[in-house]
Inverse folding.
């Protein structure tokens, strides 16, 4: 019974909705990045490799063998480094974009949590913690002065 109650609390708090929205946006963003890599970044790289599609670049370890009818008898063994490079580019673009988004979010968060910034309304808990910190620093300075004397 506790598991069901815990799940209800999880779903009601909005964590589940936030997670679903994040997954949907992430899926859409992945499609954009895949298109960017395959349609914008890779064609110039393919030109540099004599017009061969970069994703088809590979190091053949063992040639495949086909019979007279064109049916493959022995399958080719190859290392597909082009597909790996495409996937690494996808990863780098997604990682860098997420880094930039988090950086912007953190900048806004710091701005909103700055109790000395009159343009932003600071949440009461942040304001109280800031005042407590200032009082503790002041108290520590006074105690240090007393200990010196």
């Amino acid at each position: 019974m506790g598991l069901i109650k815990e799940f209800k609390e999880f779903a009601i708090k909005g964590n589940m909705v936030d997670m679903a929205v994040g997954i949907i946006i992430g899926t859409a963003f992945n499609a954009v990045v895949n298109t960017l890599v395959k349609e914008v970044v890779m064609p110039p790289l393919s030109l540099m490799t004599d017009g061969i599609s970069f994703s088809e670049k590979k190091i053949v370890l063992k040639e495949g063998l086909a019979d007279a009818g064109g049916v493959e008898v022995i399958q080719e063994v190859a290392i597909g480094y082009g597909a790996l490079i495409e996937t690494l580019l996808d990863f780098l673009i997604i990682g860098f974009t997420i880094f930039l988004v988090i950086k912007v979010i953190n900048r806004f968060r710091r701005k909103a949590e700055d109790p000395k910034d009159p343009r932003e309304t600071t949440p009461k808990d942040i304001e109280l913690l800031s005042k407590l910190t200032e009082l503790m620093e002041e108290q520590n300075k006074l105690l240090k002065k007393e200990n010196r004397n």
